[in-house]
Amino acid sequence: MKVLMISPTYDPILGGAEYVIKSLTDKLNEQDIQTDVMAFNMDKIWYPKWKNQIVYKDNSKIYRIKAFNLFQSTSFNPTRFLFNVNIFTDLSFRKIFREYDILHFHNDIDLSFPLYSGKTDQPKLFHCHTLDGNFPFYKNRLLWKRLFRMSSDYFLGCCKPTIEMLKELGLADDRIKQIPYSVDTDLYKPAYEEKVDNLVLFAARIEHRKGLHVLLKSLNYLKTPITLIILPIYAGQDYADLIEGMIKEHNQRGPHQVVVKENVSGEELIPYYQKASLFICPSLYDLFPTVNPQSMACGTPVIASDIGGMSELIIDDETGMLVPPEDPVKLAEAINHLLGDPELLEKCSKQGRELVLEKYSLNSVLKQLINFYEEII
C-alpha cells in the first residue's frame, strides 16, 4: 500500500495540520507503508511559485506543485468567495496519483487540491482540521456545501464536534470516520527534573481566534508572579502589533515577565513543554489543537477554553481545567487554582500523560488509520 498525503500547505509553512501530516507520514514509512507528501510550492501562505520541485526528506518525497494566485495583491479573492479555491495550477500533478493507492487530503481551509484532482481510481479521504472556522460558509453557501461534499469519498474528523458538523453538512455516516490526533509519546515525554515553578507557556499562531490577548489580560488578576513564554507563529500584522503593545506594558509594569521566543516549531517545542508548569490554550474558537495533547504527553497540564473537542481531553482537576472563552478573570482563577496547589498540579501532570498514552499515542492512532485504509481500498 502506498499513501499520498495532500495539503495546500506544508514545510516551511508550519502549524497543527502540518504536524499531523508529518507525524503520520514518518510513522507510516517506519511501518513500511510508503507515504509521501504533496503541497503547493509556497513558502508563505497563498503566495505560490510557478515551479515544480521534488524534495527528499527523511524517508519520503515532498512534491511541491507549481501554482499561481491571481489575487494575492488584493484583499478580495472571488474564487475563494465562490468556491473556496484560493490558488490555481495546471492538472499535470494528477499523473503522480497513479503511483499511489490512497489519496489522503488535508485541511478544509481550501478545496483547490480535492477539486482539481477530479474523479480518481483511488479512494479519496479528506481530513478536516479546521472545519469550525469555515463551517458557517459551508453550511450557508449552497455551492460551497455541494463542492465540499463531492470533493472526497470519505471525511475524517479528530473529535466529536467535527463529526457533528460533517453530519450537519449532509454527509452520510458511512462516509465519516473519527480518528483522533496523535502524539509520538516516545518523543513527547516528561522531564520532571527540568520543571520550572510558575512558568506558563503559550504556543500558537498570533491571530485573534487563538486568544493570546485574553491570556495577557488575565495576568492582571494573578496572585503569583509568573514567567510567560510565548512561542509565536505570526499571522496578521495588526493583531501582532496589539499583542506587542500588551507585552511591552506588562514587562514595564511587572510583576510578571513575558518572554517571546521566535522560530520555535515542531520537536523544538518539547523542552518548553517539559519545563512549563502550565500550558494555556485560550482560543476563542478551535477544535482540537495538537499542542494540547503534546503538552500533556510532556507532563504539563493544560488550561483551555471550553470549546470544540477540548472536553474530550481536558478534565477539571484531573488533566487540567476548562474555562469560558474570552474570560480573563476565569482564566486567571484557573491559573491561580492550579499553581496554588502543587499536589493537584502533580496529579494533573501524571494523569494527563496517562490519558494521552491511552487514547492519543501515535502507535494507537496509526493502527486505526491503517485499518481504515485497508477497509476502503
Please, could you describe this protein's structure?
By secondary structure, this protein is of the alpha/beta class. The chain folds into two domains: 2-182 and 361-376, Rossmann fold (3-Layer(aba) Sandwich); 192-359, Rossmann fold (3-Layer(aba) Sandwich). It is 36% helix and 19% strand. The protein has helices at 16-30, 78-83, 112-116, 131-140, 142-150, 160-168, 212-218, 237-253, 270-275, 291-297, 328-339, 342-359, 362-376; strands at 2-7, 34-40, 53-57, 60-65, 102-106, 124-127, 154-157, 176-178, 199-206, 227-234, 257-260, 278-281, 302-305, 320-323. The strands form two sheets. Strands 3-4-2-1-5-6-7-8 form an eight-stranded mixed β-sheet, sandwiched between helices. The chain has a six-stranded parallel β-sheet with strand order 11-10-9-12-13-14, sandwiched between helices. Helix 7 packs across helix 11 and helix 10 (291-297) packs across helix 12. The longest helix has 18 residues, at 342-359.
Give a summary of the structure in a few sentences:
With 377 residues, the chain is α/β, with parallel strands linked by helices. It contains 13 helices and 14 strands. Helix 3 links the parallel strand 5 and strand 6 (124-127).
Key phrases:
6-stranded parallel beta sheet; 14 strands; alpha/beta; 377 residues; Rossmann fold; 2 domains; 8-stranded mixed beta sheet; single chain
Instruction: Please give the count of helices.
Output: 13
CATH topology of the largest domain: Rossmann fold
How do the strands of the widest beta sheet line up side by side? 3-4-2-1-5-6-7-8
In total, how many domains does the architecture comprise? 2
Q: Multimeric state of these chains?
A: single chain
Give helix % range. Answer: 25-40%
User: Overall pLDDT, averaged?
Assistant: 95
Under the CATH scheme, the architecture of the largest domain is 3-Layer(aba) Sandwich
